[in-house]
Amino acid sequence: MTSPLATTPASQERWSPRLWGTLLVLCAAMFLDALDVSMVGVALPSIGSELHLTTSTLQWIVSGYILGYGGLLLLGGRAADLLGRRRVFLIALGVFALASLLGGLVDSGPLLIASRFIKGLSAAFTAPAGLSIITTTFAEGPVRNRALSIYTTCAATGFSMGLVLSGLLTEASWRLTMLLPAPIAVLALLVGIKLIPHSEREKNHRGYDIPGAITGTASMLLLVFTVVQAAEAGWASARTLLSFAAVAVLLAVFVTIERRSAGPLIRLGVLRSGSQIRAQLGAMAFFGSYVGFQFLVTLYMQSLLGWSALHTALAFLPAGALVALSSTKVGNIVDRFGTPRVIAVGFTFMVIGYALFLRINLAPVYASVILPTMLLIGAACALVFPSLNIQATNGVHDDEQGMVSGLLNTSVQVGGALFLAVVTAVVTANAGEGSSPQAVLDSFRPGLVVVTAIALVGLLITLTGLRTRRPQTSVLIAKSVQEESVREEADPVLAERVAVRD
């Protein structure tokens, strides 16, 4: 059940300067999260050279962040609901700033990896807390859709800008790529202390689900760790198989605990909503396919075409620019057509863009292949990412916005780690004995086919939500205090505003 729109502070079309300031602080945190993910990749060779790190150690500079971020999102989302969204957001943002400063000053590989893990951990709390602050501050419908489109656009812009900035900063020193987020985070923290509204903790919650937090966090940490290490250890190795078995056991225990807990970390009833499930699976397919694509494209441009890091970053710029320019338009499109249709169109663009990139060869084909692909993917990101956030958070009670936000971000991160590992494994399996440029290019194509297939699966999942439904006037049937179910209306926009509670 959703709160009445009239009680939401941002229920009017005109936003106050304070409300704009709050949104900009939240956008800054999301921008930094995305910026940090993309900036470190280009700096890895310089880091390895200065700190004398092996390739396997360098991998953990990236994987450490993913491990902390993806493993603790569920806990971060629920903590925002129980402890207060403002408090959790500001504390985690302060930790992020300190970890950024530490990462730029250390002279040790293990310390750098530790700083990356801490940054990922703090992002696991700022991301769901920030998203839930938006969804509880801005009224559900056109106003919230507009806010979410701006918010998610900042994430996509940060990811794109990180590629360009890393190419520029690494020319001077890799440490600048680590230090850059620190002053921005401090400024956002100071402004946030003044502007972000105080939020109440969840009322009438029945204690803290400590066993669920332990098993849920442990299962996510082990899942991300296993996926990250599978490419090195081997997908069929005893270590990988035993790790996946342990993940399955932990998840089974977690589900059992959640079903019996009076105050669960995740209320499993929220997953009875088809719209919610499609949003979570769509998020996995969307980010997983894009991360795999970016990985292959970066290798193609730098290893085969001989482009510099900055040249490669500029090739991605049209996609980021298109996302940034569309920030205020997507909300209106969603209001008119509903999230399922918008997501379906976006996934269609992604499939076409990825398939078009299969035409690459050893000679640069920027105008006919690379540029059209980047524009298609930019349009897809502009449509899909905001719409997924809107679909996942619509119709959810304020007390559970943090939980759903954490769940969505977990789907994004796990999808990215899982499908990147799959794409890497496919490319490795198809690498021949020869190391000629043509042989390397031939090994990339199966990976691009997998990327295209992942996006196609996301499209097919989304299309299942476009079935025509008979209009129904009843939107809520109360069965008990803890068990409620709802019926969706024919209009796709109104249907997303229906809450599903058990």
From TrEMBL:
Subcellular location: Cell membrane
Superkingdom field: Bacteria
An example Gene Ontology molecular-function term: transmembrane transporter activity
InterPro entries: MFS, MFS_dom, MFS_trans_sf, Sugar_transporter_CS
Keyword Glycosyltransferase: no
Membrane topology annotation: Multi-pass membrane protein
Keyword Ligase tagged: no
Location of the Major facilitator superfamily (MFS) profile domain: 22-470
TM segment ranges: 20-45, 57-76, 88-106, 118-138, 150-170, 176-196, 208-228, 240-258, 279-301, 307-326, 338-357, 363-385, 406-427, 447-466
Any one of the GO CC terms: plasma membrane
First-listed, main subcellular location of the protein, grouped into a coarse class: membrane
Keywords associated with the record: Antibiotic resistance, Cell membrane, Membrane, Transmembrane, Transmembrane helix, Transport
GO terms under biological process: response to antibiotic
Name of a matching Pfam family: MFS_1
PANTHER family assigned: BLR6921 PROTEIN (PTHR42718:SF46), MAJOR FACILITATOR SUPERFAMILY MULTIDRUG TRANSPORTER MFSC (PTHR42718)
Protein name, entry field: MFS transporter
Organism expressing this protein natively: Streptomyces antnestii
